[in-house]
Amino acid sequence: MSEKLIIIGGGLAGSEAAWQAAKRGVSVRLYEMRPRKLTEAHSTGLLGELVCSNSLRSNDMYSAPGLLKKELSMAGSLIMEAAEFSTVPAGSALAVDRTIFADFITKRLSEHPGIDIVREEVTELPSEVAIIATGPLSSEGITRSLAEIIGNEYLFFYDAIAPIIDAESIDYEKVYRASRYGKGGDDYLNCPMTKDEYESFYNAIMEADKVTPRGFEEGRVFEGCMPIEVMAARGFDTPRFGPMKPVGLPDPKTGREPHAVVQLRSENRELTAYNMVGFQTRLKWPEQKKVFSMISGLEHAEFLRYGSLHRNTFVNSTVLLNPDLTLKSRGHLYVAGQISGVEGYIESTAMGLIAGINAGFRLTGKSAPKVPAGTAHGALIRHITETESRHFQPSNINFGLMPVPDEARKLRDKKLKRKLVVDKALLDWRAYLDLLDMP
Predict the structure, then answer these.
(1) Cβ–Cβ < 8 Å for 238, 167
(2) Residue ranges of the domains in the chain?
(3) Long-range contacts: 149-152, Cβ < 8 Å, 24+?
(4) Quick one: pLDDT at residue 158?
(5) What confidence score (pLDDT) does residue 292 get?
(6) How far is CA 29 from CA 23, 110, 131, 335, in A?
(7) So what's the pLDDT on residue 254?
(8) The three-state (H, E, C) secondary structure of 358-401, written as one string
(9) How many Cα neighbours within 13 Å face the side chain of 267?
């Protein structure tokens, strides 16, 4: 065994980093403060606990999320292995049973002889080689220590989570099962709304009491995880072009698309709970009950979890990080996961995977190969390290981040163009993985 690698944070990124480093013969000490100290959104001490959606998004390999998941699987990702083990129906998306998923991750890491899990809060950044993977809910202690190194002006905070509904409280006479355009079966419950119902619902959202953001949260909203009331404030029809989009979801009772639709996605295999898709919110809890009960089929809904505001911590990575994910000012410290400036479960996992590989190579006396820019992993790294700092915002993986191969530039067929991007990415990723396996 080489020198011990310290990893701070047992979320998706920290868990994946620990797994990748340990696979390469590095002794790992993984620090996780839960369950001794919980965050505002976590409720267990399980590693890899999901606190927002239970979806890892599209499974289509020729979508950007599908490509990233394919790359992760090819690299032997623990998180992807856990996801495949704990899947629940979600149409063409990959969604998981949260408990089974986190149990799997915790068990595998606990049983690995090269990984020592320490249930303590870390409040000071170490002087040894370490990966900071404390996630969007980083504790005040570690955040303060990080700010002392990088400066408060390079730390940012925001986010919100969606409600979960008891399946037995849904009126199944009013909702219908379908996936958009019939893709992936009928795994979503759809709550149709007429024009009048939508107008009443919209007005209720606009009039409802909201949680007042704390000073450091004001004005900072991630476009891909926008609270429904913030979306509504942008225009009367804005939610209808977002999470309430009815396109591709005809109501079997009428044969027509409703004026608006609220989609519900299963939270577990037993189908006892459903997540309100895209309904992150800052509404006060009593207001959520009142307003969301106006949705057709949810008149008597029982909320197992209300939506709530929570802190999302990330660094201005374009100013602070090297392409290998080390801090420019502290070359022994790697930054991974959402705190590195990516957004989403699989994106956080991907940065954990790269940090774990790079730190593992470093501690075994080798130089890690560079991640190819044309891969999904490489595209994320370029985004968080090369975007102009004034315009930087966390991002999910998307084709807009990926370079287009020369042979695809003149193509007008978007599907064919994306296929070429994906095929080239997978070839480059395979070559990268082959370099990792070289002696």
Answers:
(1) no
(2) 5-155+314-436, 161-309
(3) 149/125, 149/327, 149/329, 149/330, 150/315, 150/320, 150/327, 150/329
(4) 63
(5) 98
(6) 14, 11, 10, 16
(7) 94
(8) HHHHHHCCCCCCCCCCCCHHHHHHHHHHHCCHHHCCCECCCHHH
(9) 20
Helix (H, G, I), strand (E, B) or coil at 320: helix
Task: Tell me the residue type at 356.
Answer: G
Calpha distance 19→211 (Å, rounded): 39
63: left (phi > 0), else alpha (psi -120 to 50), else beta?
beta
**pLDDT, block means (10 residues), the chain with 439 residues:** 85 98 97 91 92 90 96 98 96 94 98 98 96 92 94 76 89 95 85 98 95 55 73 95 95 96 90 90 93 97 82 88 97 97 94 98 95 97 88 81 84 87 97 92
136 cis-preceded (ω within 30 degrees of 0): no
The yes/no answer on whether domain 161-309 falls in CATH 3.30.565.10 is no
* Rounded CA separation 179/158 (Å): 30
Contact between residue 295 and residue 189 where contact means Cβ atoms under 8 Å apart = no
Query: What was the pLDDT predicted at 1?
Result: 37
The pair of structure tokens assigned to 350 is 């991907």
Q: Are 61 and 27 in contact (CB under 8 A)?
A: no
19 Cβ contact list (under 8 Å, min separation 6)? 77, 78, 108, 109, 112, 115, 356
Which CATH class, in words, describes the domain spanning 5-155+314-436?
Answer: alpha beta
Beta carbons within 10 angstroms of residue 115's beta carbon: 21
**How far is the C-alpha of 145 from the C-alpha of 387, rounded, in Å?**
25
Alpha carbon of 299 to those of 279, 292, 293, 332, 365: distances in Å? 17, 8, 4, 54, 62
Q: Is 108 helix (H, G, I), strand (E, B) or coil?
A: helix
